[in-house]
Amino acid sequence: MNIHQNLSDPRANDGPNASGDQLERLRGYINSQIVGQSAFLDKLLIALLADGHVLLEGAPGLAKTKAVNTLAAAIHCDDRRIQFTPDLLPTDLTGTDVFRPGEGTFEFVEGPLFHNLILADEINRAPAKVQSALLEAMAERQITVGQSTYKLPDLFMVLATQNPIEQEGTYPLPEAQLDRFLMHVKVDYPDLEAERQILALVRGEAMHGRTEPDFTVTPATIFGWRAAALKTHVSKALEDYILQFVFATRKPETYGNDLSGLIAFGASPRGTIALDRCARVHAFMRGSEFATPVDVQAVVHDVLRHRLILNFEAEADGVTKDQVIDELLKRVPVS
Ligand SMILES: Nc1ncnc2c1ncn2[C@@H]1O[C@H](COP(=O)(O)OP(=O)(O)OP(=O)(O)O)[C@@H](O)[C@H]1O
Ligand SMILES: [Mg+2]
């Protein structure tokens, strides 16, 4: 083997080219399997590289499950779907101590949370006790059963869906708990051309099976990307912009009297941290060592929309959180 030739090949070392190349392949692959949803898929990758959890919102049949399965397979992780139901118990998620009569001892049997990517489907169908078991696992990345604590996998990401259609007999997550999610991502319907490609893709899959990835990305690769993304530079001016934006959600009237009384609760410091982290990952994913206001603006809706509580009057007037964020984007100056 010619060492020099290897070193001159950008893919042969761990330089930025090598990671960019692999990341593009991963991105290309998941976009080839889930068509016309590149915005959604990019957000999944941002959350993965920012080590956060995602609340997914979208009508049924928009390939949310397929996206999680495909991503998990492409990064050599395991995934698990948990359907939340009214009769689910916290131990159905966490696992529990099971008595082994032969040995006369209890042994912990891991629940479905002990996997890498967790698709928690329709979390609003399970009562608060179960939801908080999930939220605790998300925050602490460990599970306590009885006297013992068990560590969850190093790569642990929850993607939770709420059923947006039926509200009857459900337990919507308390607004305060939504803060635990790094992003609240909305999945939209594909356009006509994409929908045509979905047909072709699914027909092809039915006949020939799915296309396997022709690259190797593992959890170790993901950890490497996470570490690299953390090094993305944020200037003092950009930091000010992030801070001003979050403060604007708390005191929107600073940016115009017409905004006063729109927001009952603004974003928390968790929101500030999330905005900074996601903007840096966004910059990293486009191959830049510096984050810019464009990176903040690209993620701000997904990072903040679930952290705002609008006033009753604003809600009644049909004002949406996205509209409020749009308005703040126009008014908060880029420093
Ligand atoms: N954008 C897309 N690209 C490729 N396949 C798609 C796309 N959208 C939907 N499909 C196909 O539609 C079917 C439904 O997808 P999936 O089960 O992942 O949806 P879902 O969003 O999880 O739905 P639900 O909310 O009911 O669980 C799958 O067979 C999937 O292959
Ligand atoms: Mg599904």
Account of the 3D structure:
With 335 residues, the protein is an alpha/beta fold. It folds into two domains: 16-206, Rossmann fold (3-Layer(aba) Sandwich), CATH 3.40.50; 231-331, Helicase, Ruva Protein, domain 3, CATH 1.10.8.80. Helix content is 47%, strand content 14%. It is built from 14 helices and eleven strands. The chain has helices at 3-8, 16-33, 38-49, 64-74, 90-94, 128-140, 175-178, 192-208, 219-230, 236-250, 269-285, 293-304, 312-316, 321-331; strands at 54-57, 79-83, 95-100, 105-110, 117-121, 142-145, 148-151, 157-161, 183-186, 263-265, 309-310. It has a five-stranded parallel sheet. The radius of gyration is 22 Å and the shape is globular. Residues 1-17 have low confidence and may be disordered. Magnesium ion (MG) is lined by residues 64-65, 121. Residues 64-65, 121 line the site of magnesium ion.
Give the low-confidence spans. 1-17
The H-level CATH homologous superfamily of the largest domain, spelled out, is: P-loop containing nucleotide triphosphate hydrolases
What is the name of the CATH class of the largest domain?
A: Alpha Beta
> What's the total helix number?
14
Strand order of the largest sheet: 2-5-8-1-9
Any idea of the CATH topology of the largest domain?
Rossmann fold
Instruction: Tell me, rounded to a whole number, the average pLDDT.
Output: 90
Order of helices and strands: HHHEHEHEEEHEEEHEHHHEHHEHH
Give the overall shape.
Answer: globular
Write down the Rg.
22 Å
Main β-sheet: number of strands, strand sense, barrel status?
5 strands, parallel
- Count structural domains: 2
* Corresponding CATH architecture of the largest domain: 3-Layer(aba) Sandwich
Q: Report strand %.
A: 5-15%
Compute the separation of the termini in Å. Answer: 52 Å
| Helicity level | 40-55%
By secondary-structure content and strand pairing, the structural class works out as alpha/beta
What small molecules does this complex bind? adenosine-5'-triphosphate, magnesium ion
Number of strands: 11
